[in-house]
Amino acid sequence: MKTELSIYKKEAWNKVSELYGDDWLKNGISFICCNEMVKKSIPPNVNGHIKILDNACGPGSLPLNLIEYLSQKENVTFTIDACDHASKMIEKLDRNLCSKSIPNGSIKSHVMDGQNLEFPDETFDYVFSMFGLVFFPSIDKGLQSMNRVLKSGGTIGISTWAYGGFIQSFFEGYRDAVGHEWDGEEIVKLSTEGEVIEAMERNGFTDIKTSTYITPMVDKSVEELYYSYIEAPMFQSILGGVPEDKAMLFEKLVIEKLHLLKQKRQLVNESIIAIGKK
Ligand SMILES: C[S@@+](CC[C@H](N)C(=O)[O-])C[C@H]1O[C@@H](n2cnc3c(N)ncnc32)[C@H](O)[C@@H]1O
Q1: What distance in Å separates the CA atoms of residue 42 and residue 65, rounded to the nearest whole number?
Q2: Residue of 85, 134, 160, 227 with fewest CB within 10 Å of its CB?
Q3: Which pTM value belongs to this model?
Q4: Where are the alpha helices (DSSP H) in the chain?
Q5: pLDDT (tens digit, 9 = 90+) per residue, 149-159?
Q6: Which one of 9, 53, 84 would you pick to mutate in the ligand 1 pocket, going by the greatest count of ligand atoms within 8 A of its CB?
Q7: Sequence-distant (≥ 6) Cβ neighbours of residue 1 within 8 angstroms
Q8: 131 C-beta closer than 6 A to ligand 1
Q9: Domains delineated in the chain
């Protein structure tokens, strides 16, 4: 029987919500990329009332950055709707943000499937999905839903994980432990700039600009990195494909590969940021 990937399970995301501590929300990779996204997508001279959607918001890396950026602007008022299918992510976001007093804006959270957004057509000026859409069972459904709720002329911003160094070590560990390349369902989606552009154009977006963004991994030992990342749904999905009697070997091989990578250069994560228009 085919088992459902962990990346598609709400329970898996609920489970990891507690791993996103305060540290992650200040210095984590997604926080740094969200900062970059906000600066790249919202012009410094923006004004008027703007409506923003964060689809698959997790504990709030993007809303935190949006609030920081927009609350300094005198001629802007804003609303943020933040949604996620995992109720525990939303609880975490509410604890972190919804009680925050924001002088010129407000934020509302929703437990919602990002592929079936429950907002009227053409509601938002900006729609974002940071490292979220890539985990939806259907990328097209997610992008179509975001396209529907975005105003004509509005801006979309998404970020994805590139298939490279750190992530690749887990797939190579799988190959060497199991004896063949990963042949299960696609886990790392939209992992090249070309794929991102193609998917966005296919779903009605234009004028797409992409960039690859390199973030150093936090200063932890390789073993600590392995044991924290292996809890994340993406890596649980890979581990789920390893036969039980090969699990220890898989762990050993991935850790060895991460050590080798670290010897060659600092461990980094590569992500792709894409911004487009409707
Ligand atoms: C890697 S986290 C990213 C969270 C946040 N955007 C960030 O950058 O820190 C992926 C998020 O996508 C959410 N997610 C996955 N599939 C989803 C779906 N079908 N609908 C809504 N949210 C989903 C997960 O619950 C999780 O919070």
Answers
A1: 12
A2: 227
A3: 0.94
A4: 10-17, 22-27, 29-41, 61-70, 87-93, 139-149, 165-178, 193-202, 222-229, 233-240, 247-264
A5: 999 999 999 99
A6: 84
A7: none
A8: yes
A9: 6-163+186-218+267-277 (3.40.50.150)
CA of 179 relative to ligand 1 center, distance in Å:
32
Q: Give SS3 for 163.
A: coil
Token pair of 82 as six digits: 């933040």
Find the 7 Cα to ligand 1 centroid distance in Å.
Answer: 9
Helix (H/G/I), strand (E/B), else coil: 189: coil
Residue among 19, 22, 83, 131 to mutate when testing ligand 1 (max atoms within 8 A of CB)? 131
What CA–CA distance (Å, rounded) separates 109 from 254?
Answer: 37
CB atoms within 10 A of CB 121: 9
Distance 23 CA to ligand 1 centre (A): 18
| Residue entry with tokens 């210095």 | 27
Q: Are 50 and 126 in contact (CB under 8 A)?
A: yes
Convert the pLDDT of each residue in 48-92 to its tens digit. Answer: 999 999 999 999 999 999 999 999 998 999 999 999 999 999 999
Nearest-atom number in ligand 1 for the CA of 56 is 22
Q: Whose CA is nearest to atom 14 of ligand 1?
A: 56
Asked whether the beta carbons of 274 and 249 are under 8 A apart, the reply is no
